[in-house]
Amino acid sequence: MGKLLAFLRQNSVEILFIALQFLCLYVLVQTKSFHKSRWNQVAGSFTNRIIDVRSNVENYLSLKEQNEVLQRENARLRSLVPDMFVLDAPVYFPLNNEDMEQRYRVFPGRAINRSFKKANNAILIDKGVKHGVYPGMAVIGPKGVVGIVKDVFPRYSTALALIHSNMRLSVRLKSNDFFGSLTWDGRDFRFAQITDLPTHADIQIGDTVVTDSRSTIFPPGITVGIVDGIEFNTVGDFIHAQIQLSTDFSSLHAVYLVEDMRKDEVDEIIEQALINNTQR
Amino acid sequence: MNSSLNILATFVLGILLQVLVLNNVQLFGFMVPYYYPIIILALPATMNQHYILIFAALTGFIIDMFEHTGALHASATLIMAYLRPVILRLISTQSGRELPELSLQALGIKNFLLLSSIGIFVHHFSLFFVDALRFSNIDITFIRALYSTLLSVVVVFVVHGLFTPLRKKI
Q: What is the ipTM of this complex?
């Protein structure tokens, strides 16, 4: 017993270090794996307000620049509005406005904190449950796709950015309909990659990449980026394409949250399909 | 009394500098300045190592709360704080115990540069390593840590240079 106590006393610094380090790693694993970690909620309620104040100052200093971006974006959005509608009638009938039913609704938010230099990047948005934000909501910016809402707070929410190692987004080429999944390799925040395009896909540098209708989160046709480099992989029969993201994650302020008004319906179908699969 | 007030002031100001200013700075997409490790590195050498470890974990944790990173910074800062006595042994025969404080003016440019650059590199490397664990490309982590250390050390010298009294400047 005396020996044990002496050992503990002699190595107390090491023991404290190891205990604290384990505590840190425990919290780290918790926050990485749990979808809605309790911890982020607690920490967020303290720090979100302070970050909000800083963001207000920052916003004031760049008002002019932001106005210009918003104006340009508004103009573009007006011309894009039909994209937010889906066709409800078979196409061979004459089209009129009643056949179109609105599926997506867009409302503005502000990215009050963002990261782009880590391996897992997230964005803090100043809209939360009180404004109708739910996890899994699509987030787009003035220039293109930004990310997907992960945690929601009463007045704030966090979104996984496209440049997050867990991110996977269904995309397609705008000029033809070849599709693939966009992922991020963690190297440069300006570029993401598509690694599963078939080798016969007609892809050229400069092609625009947009969201695909297979994504149950994003409306189809939202710009993601531009093809910047193509590499033919001889082993796997896949093209590895480097995509320059249209959203600049280092200067992101205005964002738009896209509400899918058919989310419940879609979720139900997916759930049903899962149940059917397991039964078989 | 005076010295503990001093430590508290550097602690609060250092963290505010980090979360309100430096967290929004980046160079060339991968260079990140972190000022806050120097708060721990510059604690008096005579201070109890237990307190230093707890202080380091706490500091890292506050940064984590602002960055929504769980306990990533706490873990990295803890490793750095644990290795601090080794660095201090490198720069002084008495592990810096003979000095009243570990400031730029007390240590001199060479020793302060050694202390800050080695300590900050240890911090940055463990930070980027734990953050990017799944990518397993250690070469990129190393280079990122190296360049970010350069930037952080420059920031540390600018800030500490500004707050060193003119007459006593080395």
A: 0.80
